Amino acid sequence: MSAEPVSKLPPLLGTMAGVKLSFPRTEVGLPSIHYGDEKDVWGQNPTKHYALPTQDSIIRDFTIAVNRKTFRPICSKADLYSFAGMRWYGDKDLPPESSRWLEFGFSPQVFAEGGGQLRHLYEQQIELSKDLVGPLHVRQDAFGLRQLSSDREAGPLVGTQASMVFDTWYFDDRTWQTLISCIRQSTNVTPNKIYCAHWFVVPELNATVRGNYTVMADVADWKHIESEVRKLALSFIVGESAR
Question: What is the pTM of this model?
Answer without folding.
Answer: 0.89
